[in-house]
Every structure is written in structure tokens, then in C-alpha cells.
């Protein structure tokens, strides 16, 4: 039975001693070094080269790729360090895909059982968009962050919910920044996101490492689109008289768009039983990341809840992007005297209490601060 070996980078096939292979056949070996004409060096293959060095053995091939035949069944790399293992791969399983190292953090908390969990990949340079989405879907967190290493503290960053890519995510930014600080030491980081450049400062605190993100330039829409409020209230199963008249509904942006609705009572905020499919369709139609439900505890303290059906998540335990947008909303409304600081408590009603600190300057971007801690991987992550 003819088969192929797979290694996604350049090499030269050389005759070498064989050793016993699968089913009693001989397994050929590959020697690293000389380029094979017509075999392109893609970013993914370069990624594997950097990590495997001369510890290579195999190749797969389809059409334009170089084909090498052996007498055993197809195999592929299943891990990349320190010496990759080979495992059987049926041809229907497709091409070789690297398995990134995934960290698991919870943001806006100093306890693993609190905060908002996020998957963190600190080196996503070899991952395709489809691979990132598949991993985020498998993890099931409200968002996961994928970091591509840069120079001098600058990183290209992407965020994925279980359903789609999002332009910016506050809690995953905090989680990723703390993970980088634990690996490289605290300092200033620059994340290049789809929403723009986001600076994050990490520092050691009594309970671990904290991070402060500075949002992109925020803004608040002067008015809601016609019909949006009535449709949102219907899908939330709220009534207009359950809203706080001192904090009128609005759409605010600080990296992502959020519909802000203020409850008149804590009891109204505590009851969350909404039409998931209906609110998902509505938020997608208006390009809203979440609906930010808030209740004013005191002059500088708020309780919050954030339905996130557009991302496939019933509720977000902590939403840094919404906190930044909410800070911009309060400043534009004149509901706070800037510069000032806010304390937002989120996630209490779903059993994952989170603490978000928001600094609102007199003008410009909003700063959101919090801690993050490592957590165990979910069972479905393997």
C-alpha cells in the first residue's frame, strides 16, 4: 500500500538507512538542508521549520507539493516539542495543522472561580483564521485571544468568540497582557487590533499582576436607530417603565459597539430571561457586540450584566470593552464629573463575580483595569 509522509517545509530526500516501520515495512528518513525546487516556503512551513529544526521525518503532498512515496500508511506530526510524535492520519482528515499551546486565564478577578475566562494563544503565527475560529469554538469561552509576536512590545492581536471574530475584546486583552507579563515581565504592550492600537500597561500588585488597557478613541451615537429600543426591550422582556430615566438608552463605542440600557432597580437587573435568537438577530443587524445592562449603585459604582448572543454566549461575566464604552457614555451624558474613576461589579448574578475599574479622563480614550489569573482548562478542551 502506497502512502506519504508529511512535513510542511523544505527538505531534500536522501537515501538513508531504514528502520522497522508500521506493519513490518521499512520507514524512510529525511535529511534537512537542501531546498527542493518548486516547493514554496509558506508562513506555516516556516513556523514549523523554526520549531523542528533538523528533527524532521515526513511529508504529505497534494498536487503542487512534492510527493514522496513509502510503503506505509500516511502519518502527520501530532506535536512539535521537544521531538514531534507521528500519528496515523486518514486522507479525509485534510492537511497538517499545528496544535498551538493554549493558556487559560480568567480576567477581572484574582480568583479562578470568578471573572471572565479566555483562551490565550501567545504564538498564533502559524494559525490560519479557520484554525483560530475552530479553537475558540471548541473552548467555548466568550472570547479567546490570538497573539502574533512582534517587536519591542508590539503584537498583532485577534479575538474570536465561539461564533465569529470580533474587532476588540477587553477581558481577553487583560488576560493576554497578564499572560505575557508572567512570561516576559511587566511593562507596556501595544496590541494592534482590528479596532485600532490598544496600549496595555501591566504591573505587579499584591494579589498578582494587573493590567490597564487604554481604549481606542470612543464615541457615543447622538440617537438610537428608529425602532431599536422597542425591539430590544421586547426581546429582553423588559418594559420601558423599568428603565432609569436619568440614564437614557444609547449606543456607545470604545472598540466595539454596545447598546446601553440602565435598569431602574437592582431587582430588574437580576432577572435576565431573554429571547436569545431574537436578541442575537437584533444585535447582529445593528452591529452591536453586546447589550450593556447597568444599574447605578452609587455615584461611582455600578452593577452590570451583558447578554452576548451575537457571540453565541448567553451572558458575559465581565466585559472590558463595554466598560470602556460605558465610561465614554457617562462622560458624554454629563452623568459623572470627569476626570473620575468608576467601579463596576459584573458576573454576580451568574456566579462569577468580576471587578472592573474604569478611569474616565476629561477627554480622550477610556482606561479599564483589572487582574487575571490562570485557570484549569475546560474538560472539552482536552
UniProtKB/TrEMBL annotation:
InterPro entries the UniProt entry points to: Phenazine_PhzF-like (IPR003719)
Heme listed as a keyword: no
UniProt keyword annotation of Isomerase present: yes
GO cellular component: a single term: cytoplasm
TM region positions: none
Annotated Pfam families: PhzC-PhzF
Superkingdom, natural source: Bacteria
SUPFAM superfamilies: Diaminopimelate epimerase-like (SSF54506)
GO MF annotations, alphabetized: isomerase activity
Family per record: Belongs to the PhzF family.
Protein name, as recorded: PhzF family phenazine biosynthesis isomerase
Organism of provenance: Pseudoxanthomonas winnipegensis
Lineage of producing organism: Bacteria, Pseudomonadati, Pseudomonadota, Gammaproteobacteria, Lysobacterales
